[in-house]
């Protein structure tokens, strides 16, 4: 079915070969190489007006199936040229795929759900293997995220699978902040990728992408409605990651209850404005199957790694006294649908959505937050770099100012200290002078005293000598007197 | 309380299990390989872009070659009546874009021609407009990439491969050839070919090739497929075989003739018909296989991962330098953004 529609902004959609819608970029209005099976006219190189007139004449209505149009690309002289032989670039998709195979794929799943809802078991069942890990306890003080990476290989495809699981979700008494670690984790992965992308020397093609591609939200099988914790968490996550809600342990719900439950859940999600991941319906090869699957959301799944013999085959199942629930039986649960959608049909789309929608949104918000903005195309582009420079200059200027201020302060302090020290010095000097004076006074006093003492000593000495002299004279005189007396006697 | 503390821990980068985990065994079919099919469908829907540049003196058969390669009239030959016969004074670059489709695979092919290259008497710096053009395309892509709101698919106008036509003198590479290839092999994938190879006999061809290879090695010119970018031993083996044959001796023709009852593309001369697609006559099939059938994606990847990245490093460092030099002459961060000699 080939239709052509024209939009007023100059962009027009052309359906090519009746198979795909292609969006032509801003076009000057020229259409090249359109041919139709209806008439022998080839309308080549005409303007849009001419084409419209021609179309009205030859195409009966919009959905005329007899028209085959070759698409027109950019309007700058871009023609579609017919090939006259086999060139060989049809191997391009194969080349691309081979390169990707050599490179390996990576896929990251985040499982959010309360403890005990069967997240690990479901992962084991989905990937048909046994991932290691112990069941978590209920006594976690906060929500943590546990992540593990595995290398899986199937035929020639190497898949680096990372499974991140919430531990302790919904176990606390106060669950207000339960969603925060999850949001922070997802943001951290985006941030890591953004940092790598903004580096000057970067290695993007070898980068291990840890961004979460799909978030499986496990809903407890109460049969009534979503818990408020679920609603709040999903609302916070819907703009950051592709959410696929699933009803866990759905063997606890009967079929009729299940339909009611699903309807209730979808209506609650819609009324709260939660955007869950819709399987893409634009590619016609998968549109049908995706469309029907979209109607079955949320999937009611059962996980089991035990194999039981049913009929004459070994199947994954859970055995109850009243019967056996087969995991891969579409009548029993939607596990097969989940596996189809998640892995076999839409894995690439999940990755693409993560990169082109969620990551771009994060990047835009983050860069705007940092102060960058796109300038209009007329003014000088390369705004990121300029803003970088401006910011850098600003930052450097600030640094310089700060340095100056610090220097000033330092100088000030030094001056103050110097003054203080000078003061102290002066004081010391004064003290010293005083002391010195005191000393001198003392010394003088002492000297005076000494002098007077000396004088006294001298005076005493003199008197002593005088006294001695006197005494010796007296003695002599006395002696001579006695001599005289003796002489007189003799006579 | 505790929750605050824990949430900080959880925001850290996830820890990987010890790498010795090895390849995990799958007990049954999961369906992971379906991702290949999904990828194929997506890329086919999006379409491919390929930009090729042909450089060489006038009269070497560039436009004919491109027409032969893509089996359609993508290039207008300068020798056709009605075209200006004047040799342009400076090297001009003319880009023509076409959309070609084969078996559901759409490709937007851009061929950039360089009339006037090497045609003047004084050919100094005739490579400058070409280098400027290539850098402009990188610049355009870089600008798109660093926008805040980016387009879903950035239009890629970067030159993925440059086919350089060597005139079939049979002697050595001329100084012009050497200069050009030396400068350009640093920023783009250069594929040298010997043009109009029907003037050389097979032995002369061999000798010419040997001399060219020696010259290239002596001047350390690394043409496509570059040795440094071989990813694994298989690649290396394959590319070694190709490297032995570089440069390919090609003949271009866009007219069909009858040979043994079949219609083949070829050149008719009095002494025989040179079949373009016959590997015994010329190496055109090898060139075509290299460029289109086997290494097209590789050309694009090397342009994107190596040449574009090195341009980006240079550009981002350049704009850092003026800011650094005004900072009291302090030495900036040690980037080894090698200032190219362009």
From TrEMBL, chain A:
Molecular functions per Gene Ontology: GTP binding
Coiled coil regions, renumbered to chain: 407-463
Domain Septin-type G: from-to ranges: 103-369
Annotated Pfam families: Septin
Biased composition (Low complexity): 469-481
UniProt KW GTP-binding keyword: yes
Residue numbers spanned by region Disordered: 469-491
Alphabetical keyword list: Coiled coil, GTP-binding, Nucleotide-binding
Superkingdom as given in the UniProt entry: Eukaryota
SUPFAM superfamilies (UniProt xref): P-loop containing nucleoside triphosphate hydrolases
Keyword GTP-binding included in the entry's annotation: yes
CDD domains: CDC_Septin
Family: Belongs to the TRAFAC class TrmE-Era-EngA-EngB-Septin-like GTPase superfamily. Septin GTPase family.
PANTHER family per UniProt: SEPTIN
Protein name per Swiss-Prot or TrEMBL: Septin 6
Taxonomic source organism: Phasianus colchicus
TrEMBL record, chain B:
Keyword flag Glycoprotein: no
GO cellular component, one term: cytoskeleton
Keywords recorded for this protein, A-Z: GTP-binding, Nucleotide-binding
Pfam families reported for this sequence: Septin (PF00735)
Tree of life domain: Eukaryota
CDD domains: CDC_Septin (cd01850)
UniProt-recorded Gene Ontology molecular function terms: GTP binding
Positions of the UniProt region annotated as Disordered: 319-342
Residue ranges of domain Septin-type G in the record: 46-318
Leader sequence segment: none
Biased composition (Polar residues): 319-329
GO biological process: cell division
Membership in a protein family: Belongs to the TRAFAC class TrmE-Era-EngA-EngB-Septin-like GTPase superfamily. Septin GTPase family.
Name assigned to this protein: Septin 12
């Amino acid at each position: 079915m080939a239709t052509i529609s024209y939009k007023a902004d100059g962009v027009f959609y052309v359906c090519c070969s009746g198979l795909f819608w292609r969006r032509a970029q801003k076009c000057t209005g020229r259409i090249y190489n359109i041919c139709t099976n209806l008439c022998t006219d080839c309308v080549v190189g005409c303007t849009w007006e001419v084409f419209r007139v021609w179309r009205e004449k030859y195409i009966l209505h919009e959905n005329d199936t007899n028209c085959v149009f070759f698409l027109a690309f950019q309007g700058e002289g871009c023609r579609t040229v017919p090939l006259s032989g086999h060139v060989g670039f049809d191997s391009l998709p194969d080349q691309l795929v081979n390169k990707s195979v050599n490179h390996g794929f990576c896929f990251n799943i985040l499982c959010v759900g309360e403890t005990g809802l069967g997240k690990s078991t479901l992962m084991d069942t989905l990937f048909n293997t046994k991932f290691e890990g112990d069941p978590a306890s209920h006594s976690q003080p906060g929500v943590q995220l546990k992540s593990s990476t595995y290398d899986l290989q199937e035929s020639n495809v190497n898949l680096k699978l990372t499974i991140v699981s919430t531990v302790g979700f919904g176990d606390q008494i106060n669950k207000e902040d339960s969603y925060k670690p999850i949001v922070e984790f997802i943001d951290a992965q985006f941030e890591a990728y953004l940092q790598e992308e903004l580096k000057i020397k970067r290695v993007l093609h070898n980068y291990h992408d840890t961004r979460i591609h799909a978030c499986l939200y496990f809903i407890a099988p109460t049969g009534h409605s979503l818990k408020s914790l679920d609603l709040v968490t999903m609302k916070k996550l819907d703009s950051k990651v592709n959410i696929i809600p699933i009803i866990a342990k759905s063997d606890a719900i009967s079929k009729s209850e299940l339909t009611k439950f699903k309807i209730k859940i979808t209506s609650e999600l819609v009324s709260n404005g939660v955007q869950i991941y819709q399987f893409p319906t634009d590619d016609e090869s998968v549109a049908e199957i995706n469309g029907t699957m979209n109607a079955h959301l949320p999937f009611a799944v059962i996980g089991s790694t035990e194999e039981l013999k049913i009929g004459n085959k070994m199947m994954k199942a859970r055995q109850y006294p009243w019967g056996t629930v087969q995991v891969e039986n579409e009548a029993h649960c939607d596990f097969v649908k989940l596996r189809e959608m998640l892995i076999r049909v839409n894995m690439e789309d999940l990755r693409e959505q993560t990169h082109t929608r969620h990551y771009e949104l994060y990047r835009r918000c983050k860069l705007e937050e940092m102060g960058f903005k796109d300038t209009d195309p007329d003014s000088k582009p390369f705004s990121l770099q300029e803003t970088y420079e401006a910011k850098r200059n600003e930052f450097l200027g600030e640094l310089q100012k700060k340095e100056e201020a610090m220097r000033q302060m330092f100088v000030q302090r030094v001056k103050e200290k110097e003054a203080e020290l000078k003061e102290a010095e002066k004081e010391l000097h004064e003290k010293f002078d005083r002391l010195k004076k005191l000393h001198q006074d003392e010394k003088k006093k002492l000297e005076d005293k000494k002098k007077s003492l000396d004088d006294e000593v001298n005076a005493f000495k003199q008197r002593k000598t005088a006294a001695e002299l006197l005494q010796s004279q007296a003695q002599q005189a006395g002696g001579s007197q006695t001599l005289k007396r003796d002489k007189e006697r003799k006579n | 309380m505790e929750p605050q503390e824990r949430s900080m821990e959880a925001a850290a980068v996830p820890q990987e299990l010890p790498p010795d985990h090895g390849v995990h065994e799958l007990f049954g079919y999961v369906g992971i390989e379906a991702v290949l099919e999904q990828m194929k469908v997506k890329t086919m829907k999006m379409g491919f872009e390929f930009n090729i540049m042909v450089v060489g003196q006038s009269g070497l058969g560039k436009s004919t070659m491109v027409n032969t390669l893509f089996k359609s009239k993508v290039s207008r030959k300068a020798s056709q009546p009605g075209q200006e016969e004047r040799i342009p004074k400076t090297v001009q670059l003319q880009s023509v874009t076409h959309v070609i489709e084969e078996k559901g695979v759409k490709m937007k092919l851009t061929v950039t021609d360089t009339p006037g290259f090497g045609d003047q008497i004084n050919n100094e710096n005739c490579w400058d407009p070409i280098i400027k053009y290539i850098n402009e395309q990188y610049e355009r892509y870089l600008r798109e990439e660093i926008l805040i709101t980016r387009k879903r698919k950035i239009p890629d106008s970067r030159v993925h491969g440059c086919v350089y036509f060597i005139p079939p003198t049979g002697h050595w590479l001329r100084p012009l050839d050497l200069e050009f290839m030396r400068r350009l092999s640093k920023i783009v994938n250069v594929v040298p070919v010997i043009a109009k190879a029907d003037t050389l006999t097979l032995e002369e061809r061999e000798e010419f090739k040997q001399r060219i290879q020696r010259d290239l090695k002596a001047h350390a010119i690394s043409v496509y497929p570059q040795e440094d970018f071989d990813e694994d031993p298989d690649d290396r083996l394959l590319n070694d075989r190709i490297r032995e044959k570089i440069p390919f001796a090609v003949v271009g023709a866009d007219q069909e003739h009858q040979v043994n009852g079949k219609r083949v593309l070829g050149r008719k001369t009095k002494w025989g018909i040179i079949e373009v697609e016959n590997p015994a006559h010329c190496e055109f099939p090898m060139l075509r296989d290299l460029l289109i059938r086997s290494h097209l994606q590789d050309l694009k990847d090397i342009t994107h991962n190596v040449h574009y990245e090195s341009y980006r490093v240079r550009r981002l460092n350049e704009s850092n330098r003026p800011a650094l030099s005004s900072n009291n002459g302090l030495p900036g961060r040690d980037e080894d953004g090698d200032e190219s000699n362009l």
